[in-house]
Amino acid sequence: MIEQTLVLIKPDGVERALVGEVLTRLERVGLKIVGMKMVLVDKNFARRHYAAHVEKGFYKGLEKFITSGPIVAIVLEGLHAVEQVRKIVGGTEPRTALPGTIRGDYAHHSYEYTDKKGIAIKNLVHASGSKKEAEEEITLWFSEKEIHSYQTVHEKHTF
Ligand code: CMP
């Protein structure tokens, strides 16, 4: 039941100074940060991360967006972490993402607008979609040495 999952605070989230806000929302449910770094990715790396989207019409815009500035990459650990993080992050399109979610509260882009403009939808964060995807994405973004093992104060004193 204890899983690890990957979260990326994309260039729009970093540029809007929302790193602390995103981390707070993820940490306060009890998820543990076990890896974190700031990275500027190139086109080659973007194609590896978004391999499932390379053939899609919006990929060019997505590549431009994801390589446009630094990203904060985080590995979170906890019970059902993949599902929990997706719940907190909200739906892909900020326009329809529910209030109370990161994308619903801090972004407002719509597919209608980005399709017209030929740009990627700016939705602040990426979160792994399944356990398998999380394992593959963590391996892509982090070396074993960059993932840490420690006990939070809650683990030390509560369980
Ligand atoms: P993410 O969760 O990182 O997964 C793939 C990304 O592609 C997604 O967030 C959006 O940033 C982008 N994306 C997905 N669908 C579309 C779309 N229809 N138009 C533009 N960008 C999209």
Counted by DSSP, the helix tally is: 9
Strand content: 15-25%
On the 0 to 100 scale, the average pLDDT is: 96
Q: Report the span from N to C terminus.
A: 16 Å
Give the bound compounds.
adenosine-3',5'-cyclic-monophosphate
- Structural class, by secondary structure, is alpha+beta
Gyration radius, rounded: 16 Å
User: What is the C-level CATH assignment?
Assistant: Alpha Beta
Strand line-up in the sheet with most strands: 2-3-1-4
- Please state the second-level CATH architecture: 2-Layer Sandwich
The count of β-strands is 4
What is the makeup of the main sheet? 4 strands, antiparallel
Structure description:
The protein has helices at 11-15, 19-27, 43-49, 59-66, 81-89, 102-106, 111-117, 131-141, 153-158; strands at 2-9, 32-39, 71-79, 125-127. With 159 residues, the protein is of the alpha+beta class. Strands 2-3-1-4 form a 4-stranded antiparallel β-sheet, with helices on both faces. It binds adenosine-3',5'-cyclic-monophosphate.
Secondary structure blueprint with pairings:
Blueprint: E1 2-9, H1 11-15, H2 19-27, E2 32-39, H3 43-49, H4 59-66, E3 71-79, H5 81-89, H6 102-106, H7 111-117, E4 125-127, H8 131-141, H9 153-158
Antiparallel strand pairs: 1-3, 1-4, 2-3
Bound molecules: adenosine-3',5'-cyclic-monophosphate.
